[in-house]
Amino acid sequence: MTGTAQARGIPSLRSWSGVEVVLAAVLLALAGISWLLSGVLGMPEMRMGLLTGMGSAEMMSGGPAPFALFLGVWVVMMAAMMLPAITPFTIGVSRLVRVRRRRGVLPPLTLGYLLVWTAAGVVAWSVLRGFDAIGHSAASVRVGAVVLLVAGAYEFSPLKRWCLVRCRSPLALVVKHGDAVVRGRLGALRVGVHHGGYCLGCCWALMVVLLAVGAMNLVWMAVLAAVIAMEKVLPRAEIVSSALGAVLTGAGVVLLIAPGLLAPMG
């Protein structure tokens, strides 16, 4: 970790206490379990998307049961992808609130974060049903290309940078909401929701890309999780965002011009 990271409230790895190491290990273990569950729960219909060939529409039919199943799988996916990325943030918050002698704030903090992504799953369900209605054809590839173009453009947007700065800095969040954390678990839950909101602002476009290539495709999940982690942890996150934006935009342009590269033949 650099001095810049410490200025954001994220302590150097070399300075982590034994308790902080255990906390990080717990978060990463939960992420590992979530990855395993993602592999077990992954339905064929959710391993494919607009750009990779839609699966059966049976799972995407209306009704509470398919929706509940999707939402449960979605939360597991988000835990798998996001918990490693927020581990440095959580350690930073732990150290910053420790001086206020407040215990038990980290579970509701993480819960608040996951609640935001659970709410995002409701929107993701509607998007996925829309994608499923399109099917897989040259037209669907063009729709997927537009998704890539929008996601790529968003990586260069001021809103993305604004959310990313706040998502990366536990110091700014605790300075603003520290009193709420100290007052109790409800306050910590609210801070987790705030942090989740900033993270959603950073990553919503990438999640739509994931839906377009296959929400439960473990390879694409791993690629996007690695990118998200780099954006949150590396000192020059804007370089990662710009490179990602260029790749997504380039891929979108290519598929918009030549959808036959991915559309079914014949």
Please state the structural category. mainly alpha
**Residue fraction in strands:** under 5%
**Element pattern in H and E:** HHHHHHHHHH
Count of β-strands: 0
Characterize the main sheet. none
The gross shape turns out to be globular
Low-confidence stretches: none
Number of domains: 1
User: What is the mean pLDDT?
Assistant: 79
Number of contiguous helices: 10
Give Rg in angstroms. 19 Å
Cα end-to-end separation: 53 Å
Share of residues in helices: over 70%
Pfam families: PpoB2
Protein name: DUF2182 domain-containing protein
InterPro entries: PpoB2-like
Transmembrane segments: 21-41, 67-93, 105-128, 198-227, 239-263
What's the short story on this structure?
By secondary structure, the chain is mainly α. The chain is built from ten helices and no strands. It has one domain.
Explain what you see:
The protein is mostly helical and 266 residues long. The chain has one domain. Helix content is 75%, strand content 0%. The longest helix has 35 residues, at 64-98. The protein is globular.
Relevant terms:
single chain, 266 residues, mainly alpha, 10 helices, globular
